[in-house]
Structure formats: C-alpha cells, structure tokens
Write a structure and sequence with these properties.
This protein has helices at residues 8-20, 27-48. It has 49 residues and is an all-alpha fold. It is elongated, with a radius of gyration of 11 Å.
C-alpha cells in the first residue's frame, strides 16, 4: 500500500512495528527498514502540518 493512501494511525502502526523489529534481518533489510521509517515519519509530519 502506498503511503499517500494510509491514515495517520496506520502510519504510526507501521512506524511502531519497524522500530520494534529494526534489527532483525540482513544489513540490506535493515537499510530498507530505516529508509521506510524515514519516509513514513516525513509523511506523518506532512499530514500534521
């Protein structure tokens, strides 16, 4: 699902999940999760303003 189609509560749920499970998996997977977190947080910030 694209981020622009998510509600703020869905974005927060994804951020929470990613932050809890950030260290599981390979380095590539870790980098992808970190990038996803960055994009989600930016999107949430834009929704709030």
């Amino acid at each position: 699902m694209e981020i622009k189609n998510l509600t703020s509560s869905e974005i927060l749920a994804q951020i929470n999940y990613l932050e809890k499970n950030i260290s599981k998996g390979s380095v590539t997977y870790l980098v992808n999760r970190m990038n996803r977190l960055r994009v989600l947080k930016t999107s949430l910030h834009r929704m709030a303003s």
